[in-house]
UniProtKB/TrEMBL annotation:
Family to which this protein belongs: Belongs to the peptidase M17 family.
Gene3D superfamilies: Leucine Aminopeptidase, subunit E, domain 1, Zn peptidases
Pfam family, one: Peptidase_M17_N_1
Molecular function via GO: aminopeptidase activity
Name of the protein in question: Leucyl aminopeptidase family protein
Protein source organism: Sphingomonas canadensis
Keyword Ion transport: no
InterPro entries linked to this entry: Leucine_aapep/pepB, Macro_dom-like, Peptidase_M17_C, Peptidase_M17_N_1
Keyword set, alphabetical order: Aminopeptidase, Hydrolase, Manganese, Protease
């Protein structure tokens, strides 16, 4: 991972090229006030009052030039308003004219992300450095951008290079960095104590066996917070096998685990005063003679028996056991991230993440943070009458309703059965993938809900 602190630095009067931001509504008056050579340069480069538009303005010498860029609102910069510049400007150092980048610094950093593990980028440019007059925000911005880079890297890896063992190794490295405790449960202990994790992952081959990965860190006297992430390193659908089109992106089905790992690292690096418990159930939903069958009945860690109504509804099973384990330490707050249902995508599309919460205050905090951070989510209901759809004829419950509607809701209702009593709980059903590139957000793996959750945690436990 590159050192992102080199790309965002406190402004100490260093030599830097100027970036002037123009409000789209004031573009015409700005243009009219420019000297002829600037108007000519802007016109030649087709500068217009539209988002991400920019131009190079000449100075007095051959190497003397500055940048002008159009933004929607100069007084309220978005995280992405400088991202196109960070992708396209020549390498060098830049400062905004007369203002601080604020939230736009995040997009400046994430715009320079490259995933080059599998091929050389012959178009690679040198770094574009942004100066800020608010040095107090540098560390947090860099840490959040680092978390995004980690998520993108993990999600972009092929499943041949990222299985349960590699997720464990990633957790081990993070734990060692911060002096945290790593616990890994596998083998007979998983088979006997975590029946749903075992049922999902037991068909995978040697070296890719199911496991529960946990990190604990912090002062035991601090509020206990559990972060849980779905770690299905590849999802074939099991015996209810996915079609080829549905399987194509299933390397990203561990996106929830990537979020949990990145958020855990962010919490510990920031020394947030909480007692952290991170849990990642790591499996591969594979097909072999050992695979769980439709109609098989599992005994969960909580003791509930669960009839497997669809082997492609595996994520909620492993999360159920992990949520039960989290509850054994009586956390006050539980947040899980999971690439859980296609139904959430049908309802909300790929950019808007589905939020479920058992507490209105927590939901309001998350929605407010999502708005403030431009990290969008939408609350969906935990609609109690749909519990009826999870009844089984032979077990305590089925994990997936056998009707073609309300799939995100019934998945969340299933998870709720394993949430510790008395804890505030939020479930984020995320997509964590950019199907096409946008400024600051290249095609591929992406963070989803991370910045909103991080803001809530900071506001609660560190006073913002």
């Amino acid at each position: 991972m590159p050192d992102l602190s080199l790309l965002l630095q406190p402004d100490r009067g260093q030599t830097a090229r100027s970036i002037q931001l123009i409000d789209a509504k004031g573009f015409e008056s700005w243009l009219a006030a420019q000297p002829p050579r600037h108007r000519a340069a802007a016109t030649a480069q087709k500068l217009a009052p539209v988002g991400y538009a920019s131009a190079i303005l000449p100075g007095d010498g051959p190497d003397d030039w500055s940048v002008v860029s159009v933004v929607a609102n100069v007084d309220r910069l978005s995280p992405w308003c400088l991202a196109r510049l960070a992708e396209t400007l020549p390498e060098g150092t830049y400062r905004l004219e007369g203002r601080d980048p604020g939230p736009a610094a995040y997009g400046w950093l994430t715009a320079q992300y490259k995933f080059d593990r599998y091929r050389k980028d012959d178009r690679a440019q040198g770094p574009r450095v942004l100066l800020t007059g608010d040095p107090a925000r540098v560390d947090d911005t860099v840490r959040v951008a680092n978390a995004t880079y980690r998520i993108r890297d993990l999600v972009n890896l092929g499943a041949n290079d990222l299985g349960p063992a590699e997720l464990e190794a990633e957790a081990d490295a993070i734990a060692k960095t911060h002096g945290a405790t790593l616990t890994v449960t596998r083998g007979d202990a998983i088979a006997q104590g975590y029946g749903m994790i075992w049922a999902v992952g037991k068909a995978a081959g040697k070296g890719r066996e199911p496991r529960l990965v946990e990190i604990e860190w912090g002062n035991p006297d601090h509020p206990r917070v559990a972060i849980v992430g779905k770690g299905v390193c590849f999802d074939s659908g099991g015996l209810d096998i996915k079609p080829a089109s549905g399987m194509r992106l299933m390397k990203k089905d561990m996106g929830g685990a990537a979020h949990a790992l990145a958020l855990a690292d962010l919490i510990m690096a920031s020394r947030l005063p909480v007692r952290l418990h991170m849990l990642v159930p790591a499996v591969e939903n594979a097909i072999s003679g050992e695979a769980t069958r439709p109609g098989d009945v599992m005994r969960s860690r909580k003791g509930l028996t669960v009839e497997n109504s669809n082997t492609d509804a595996e994520g909620r099973l492993i999360l159920g056991d992990a949520l039960t384990k989290a509850g054994e330490s009586a956390p006050e707050l539980v947040i899980d991230f999971a690439t859980l249902t296609g139904a959430a995508r049908v309802a909300l599309g790929t950019d808007l993440q589905a939020l479920f919460a058992n507490d209105d205050t927590l939901a309001s905090e998350l929605l407010g943070a999502a708005e403030a951070e431009a990290d969008p989510m939408w609350r969906l209901p935990l609609y109690d009458p749909y519990e009826e759809l999870l009844k089984s004829d032979v077990a305590d419950v089925v994990q997936a309703a056998e009707v073609p509607w309300g799939g995100a809701l019934t998945a969340a209702l299933f998870l709720r059965k394993f949430v510790p009593h008395g804890a505030q709980w939020a479930h984020l059903d995320i997509f964590c993938w950019n199907g096409s590139a946008k400024p600051g957000r290249p095609k591929g793996g992406e963070s989803a809900g991370l910045r909103a959750v991080w803001k809530v945690l900071k506001d609660r436990y560190a006073g913002g």
